[in-house]
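General statements about sequence and structure are easier to judge against a single worked case. For one protein, we set the task of working out the structure tokens from the amino acid sequence alone. This step matters because it turns folding into a mapping between discrete strings. The amino acid sequence and the backbone structure tokens for this protein are reproduced below.
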Amino acid sequence: MTKFMVSSIGWIYLVIVLDWFTKKIVGRKISLRSRAAEWKEAVEMAIRREFPEDVRGMGLKLIRENGSQPRGASFVRDMVEFGIG
């Protein structure tokens, strides 16, 4: 996640889900807020695009590099439900 300032709007938050192997952006969400719901939408977009059948059992992991990620119980529970560690 990164954020940037737009003078006429305020802070804009951009969540990107990146395929670490190919470096391809597979999911994204831009919003005026950075909540677990926005992160979940970005992950869901990535899953729909890359794993239309199902993602469970694929051994996917969420990692972060010098950034933040939500740690809320609802987000963690959603990722477990998706089968993502």
Q: What stands out?
A: The chain is about 30% helix and 25% strand.
